[in-house]
Recover the amino acids of this structure.
């Protein structure tokens, strides 16, 4: 379980994973769809952010979301065999997309520079982790 630390600013809570807590790959095959769905949700939020700012980055990110969704589809049958409910996948995607959307909001629009810096660091860590799961798309 990942330790979470919260910071509150103007009624909005920002959850972030401290840098000292490493991300790890799942140990069981039925946990893989969750990892890939979470990363697909995170990168889809990044794609929305990039859409108008950087069309080239947007295209690369959309391709990465597609690869992650393919990985979800490929690993889902094994997970279902171990009792995973297929509907959980959309919940994981939605929650991760919301998490990154809130973090983006904090990173780019917070009046508290400490909160903005923590959010930016959190974005870099989580997005890099998800992108590192995939082959380079350059």
């Amino acid at each position: 379980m990942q330790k979470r630390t919260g910071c509150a600013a103007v009624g909005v809570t920002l959850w972030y994973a401290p840098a000292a807590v490493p991300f790890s790959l799942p140990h069981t095959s039925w946990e893989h769809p969750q990892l890939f769905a979470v990363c697909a949700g995170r990168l889809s939020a990044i794609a929305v952010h990039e859409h108008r700012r950087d069309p080239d980055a947007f295209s690369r990110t959309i391709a990465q979301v597609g690869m992650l969704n393919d990985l979800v589809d490929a690993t889902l049958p094994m997970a279902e065999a171990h009792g995973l409910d297929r509907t959980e996948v959309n919940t994981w995607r939605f929650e991760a997309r919301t998490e990154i959307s809130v973090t983006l909001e904090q990173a780019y629009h917070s009046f508290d520079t400490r909160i903005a810096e923590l959010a930016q660091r959190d974005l870099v860590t989580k997005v890099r982790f998800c992108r590192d799961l995939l082959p380079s798309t350059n």
Summary: The radius of gyration is 15 Å. Residues 47 and 61 are 6 Å apart (CA to CA). The longest strand covers residues 5-9. Confidence is low (pLDDT under 50) at residues 1-22.
